[in-house]
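Form 12-C: Joint structure prediction
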Amino acid sequence: MTRLPEFHAAKWDEPVVMEMGRPGGRGQHFPAPEEEVTAAVGADLIPSAMARKDLPELPEITEFEAQRHYLHLSQMTLGMMGISLFGTCTMKYNSKTAEFATLRPELSAVHPYQHPDTLQGVLEILHDFDGILRSLSGMDQFIFQAGGGADAAYTMVCLARAYWQDKGMLGQRTEMVTSMQSHPCNPATAAAAGFKVVNLPLEENGYPSLEALKAAVSEKTALIMLNNPDDMGIYNPEIKEWVKAAKEVGALCFYDHANFNGVMGKLSARELGFDACMFMLHKTFGAPKAGGGPAVGAFGCSDALTPYLPTPVVVKSGDTYTLDEDRPKSAGKIREYWGNVPQVVKAYAWARAMGAEGIQLASDISVVANNYMDKRLSEIPGLAISNPDVKARRMEMTRWSLEPITEETGVGTVDFANRLADYGIDPWWMSHEPWIVAEPFTPEAGELWSKEDIDTWIDVIAKICDEARSDPDMVKSAPHNQAIAQVKGDAFEDPSLWAMTWRAWKRKHAGKVAERGAA
Amino acid sequence: MGSEMRAHPWMANSAPGVIEAMLAEIGASSVAEVFEQIPQDHFRKTPLALPPALTSEVELRRDLVSKLKKNDDCETNLSFLGAGVWQHHVPAIVDEIVGRTEFATNVWGSYQSDHGRNQTWFEFSSQLGALLNLDVVQLPVYSWGCAIGHAMRMSQRITGRSKVLVPALSDPERLSVIRTYCQPVEMESHIEVVLVAADPTSGRLDLNDLKAKLAGDVAAVYFENPAYLGTIETGAADIAKLARGVGAETIVGVDPSSLGVLTAPGDYGADIVTGPVQPLGVHMHCGGGAGGWIASRDDERYVRAYNGFLVSVVETQEPGQLGFGLACPHQNSYGMRENGNDWTGNSTYLWAIAGAVYMSLLGPEGFRELGNLIVSRARYAAKLLGEVPGVRIVWPETTFKEFVVNFDGTGRSVAEINDALRARGIFGGKDLSDEDHSLGQSALYCVTEIHTAADIRRLADTMKEVLA
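Section 2 - Result
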């Protein structure tokens, strides 16, 4: 075993910003209106019925105090600055070259309603990146309006509505069919769009049977939404037959390419028969996810569906790029403007920096490294792989279970996640709901982490297994080397305790506020 | 496979021999063997056709910057575009903090290991709550339009009713998103969107039309303050009272840059409040600075109807210490899939961090100065433009930072005028002439704290020159 990192998080004992400052303190001035302005328009310009009488209870701190406070908070954020094999989210290096390029005024100080003549650079990048995604997927057109993978799934269900409405059959095509282990965004967006959701159960081999799908699809099916491989690392080898069966009843087929990293450059959604797909640019394509957005779900579809796309669509005519808003059959906008443009530029940068060969190599590495990780994890007593009957090598991630060691020691996956942070390792991803596997965890090595990183990560897991056996209470009360101790979660579901703002906290916990003031 | 290629700067295991070492360890003879689950006939037949790789930073940077430089931006030009994306000053500290790699990173983290980020999120909600005088603020969703859409669906869940009243003078961009969220009429959970007329003399909501349309089947009344076309809604408290009278929710959209000078919506009876996050320290980013928040009173009926992430302060196991985590996590789509409230996923949480830093820098007096500066300069711009022959300000002296300028008296179209302005380094206001608001040849001009009196004079002088 390699030497494990000794780690302690920064601990600044930082107050809540609402507790900081002093009456009259300032962090930012604005000039008074110029004399010519006041002379022309006067003062008290807000109608008295709407003029604010109270001063908002905001902190009154200096510019330096704001900087120091938020730097401290960033330092008390592990944020992947150690090792993170966080499955389903594909941890990548986020290029600062691309980040800095997007912060230039040529993009950050650009307005989406500027005349297209003034937007030729950014439109060129979007157009070129559309071409890259077309090549990777076989689709005919991509748009970037969706603010994340879930929003791209929402784009799909809205497109399906428009498609069936155009055919006069929306009243009849009321169902969306998916697997019960598809990402929650697929059934949730379908339901939010007004479709009834049919979830197919899993068989022993890890995916629903073709027979179950055939029984579920009918003239009521508007669309099916599938991911492949799934979060267990299992690839459904019958996917072409699935698509065929869905198309036989006329349903649209959407490929949720959230787990694209292991199959980049190897599979083409279109060649497999899909009508549409989505890529997560904040994940697979190296744009930062920023703890939860701004993100981009790039949505692509075949020519048969492009009339229904939300507008605008970037098109090139001659040497000029324009924004096509004229789509009478469009499903309508799913979000304002054209998308999180800087993230698209960063994804373009990632694709250019990798190139076709680099993208192929990255998927090779991510699957090889995951199998290497599986091999080493299988040697640690107390861990169990999901779907043990599936003997084939997994794809780019694998769902594992702590069930044996939890039964032995009482220490579960949440405890392990908390303890990992004591070694400077980001708490792992467990599983989406519902938990099909007991005490789950889902590592994904990706192409970023070195073999040494992966070895360290596995050594830490082995070490925590030892700790679970020798000192389970210590593991269950972790973290011990973090900025704060375990939070008391009981308040999260208790209306008398939860407090989503400092106002609410002060109202509900007046005594504790006074104590903090005295401290 | 990797042997002919130099090790890639972003892939440690592309160094010579590493893949082979791992393959040996797992007993695989080739890379192809690890893909054994995929049937041979699934592998793509069409070769990838991508542009050449730019693996060196020097080439990559040149490509990005040379392409972006083909844009004309609002720093080199003088822009009066707004309508949902506004050019405000972004303090340098905000850029520093949102650029911190711990915050911009991919990982989701945990309540303890990513405590600092979670606290920052809570501070966003807390400070915005102080501006709104409301106790619950959800982390921002994709955009303001999306926030309104979710708020309308919240009102449907709360009231069991399926009709919303919306101003006829709405932003077509947001209205399109609202209609998407409210679903087509064929869907069982469809929400009917009914437009309420505007008072043509003020641009404000026509209260008689509102009364005529308000009944026991209305889930919510929605209005904005300031509205899409810049007008301040002085009848806000009356609208909320009318809505309450029939058991409907009042949903308001507010621009946070106005809240130092405009009454907090929590003080005039708003039940659910939405707004854009972009004015709170986020660059325009070609529309990529969009994000929309939702807020309400701390009433369990409302809290249980939210779709996304509510960050609550809680105690930790260490006495006196505070931590932060997600309240009511089981009601969203992560907890309940299709049975959760709408859906959630990655959103625009980095902009919550921008907003937290921005609000802490401004403080109460900063917001007051900001609001006063904006309304003063915007009125000045309206006044000077209104003095240009043929130019008319549609609703003078009722607006905050945006206002409608009508050019019918000039005999020129907005498109022509904007072309001429652009040739002189000025981006004119958003063209409203093809919008369904019967405003003729009109444009929506936006003036903020970044526009000086000299900029405004330059606009007016150039307008005179262009129209002469």
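Section 3 - Comments
The radius of gyration of chain B is 26 Å. The mean pLDDT of chain B is 97.
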